[in-house]
Amino acid sequence: MDPSTTSRRGFLKLAGLAGLSASAVGTLAACGGGAQPTQPGAGGSAPAGGGPAGAAASYWFLSGQPQQAVREESVKRFSAANPDTAIKYTEFQNDAYKTKIKTAIGAGQGPTIIWGWGGGGLREYVKNNQVEDLTSFFSENAPVKVAVNEFSRRPAETVLAGTIKNMGKTSKTYTLAVEFMDKGGNVVATETASVGPVAANGTQSFRINVAKGGVYGYRYKPVT
């Protein structure tokens, strides 16, 4: 991609994409060079809801529920809130994605944002300066951090637990709205937790219990 199309500052807005479970997100990275892709990959699709033509940024990720629905909804929500920096997404089946992303990045034709697995493949992209690590940028600029350390699925109950860190300079109480989904990506339960007040630069735990089994994934809305 042309680095001028999406600045590092612009990626801060992608905090809207952070409202996902770690298992659903995988690893996000920004490509460091090349041009925008013009065709969806084999075995994938570019749904009409994926974003407007001429979108400033592109995002490739895997198909397959329930994670697919989480990623689609997050991109749509971000694009609706940020029409000037909307994201166009393309979906791929697992094997097709592994081949397509490796070829595209190697040729300098990768998308703005890639979904990937930590480990060998991503390490090679970093080593060859083909992706940019945004970890420190988000650490310095994100107003709030959500960390999930438990996602327990039982026959008649689901538990989600973790912490919220206030990165601001004043105490704040946060609202965490979570949607739980079944294997097909359908929302089967919704729960809202109030966390706080959390002191400036402080951390507080949260725990959400839902009397619902058959949950395969979750997503949370931007924390307010």
Keywords:
D-Maltodextrin-Binding Protein, domain 2; Immunoglobulin-like; alpha+beta; disordered N terminus; 2 domains; three-stranded antiparallel sheet; 224 residues
The description of the largest β-sheet is: 5 strands, mixed
Work out the count of structural domains: 2
Unreliable runs: 1-26, 33-55
How large is the share of residues in beta strands? 25-35%
Terminal CA distance: 32 Å
Q: Which class do the helix and strand fractions yield? A: alpha+beta
Q: Mind telling me the CATH class of the largest domain?
A: Alpha Beta
Number of strands: 11
Looking at the structure, the CATH topology of the largest domain is D-Maltodextrin-Binding Protein, domain 2
CATH architecture of the largest domain: 3-Layer(aba) Sandwich
If strands are numbered along the chain, what order do they take across the biggest sheet? 3-2-4-1-5
**Could you spell the SSE succession in H and E letters?**
HHEEHEHEHEHEEEEEE
- Percent of residues in helices comes to 10-25%
Mean pLDDT figure: 76
Explain this structure.
The chain starts with 7 loop residues before the first helix and ends with a strand. It folds into two domains: 3-139, D-Maltodextrin-Binding Protein, domain 2; 143-220, Immunoglobulin-like, CATH 2.60.40.3230. By secondary structure, the chain is of the alpha+beta class. It has six helices and eleven strands. A five-stranded mixed beta sheet has the order 3-2-4-1-5, sandwiched between helices. A three-stranded antiparallel beta sheet has the order 6-7-10, with no helix packed on it. The chain has helices at 8-12, 22-25, 67-81, 94-106, 120-127, 135-141; strands at 27-31, 57-62, 87-92, 113-116, 131-132, 144-153, 158-166, 172-181, 187-198, 203-210, 217-220. The longest helix has 15 residues, at 67-81. β6 and β7 (158-166) form a beta hairpin.
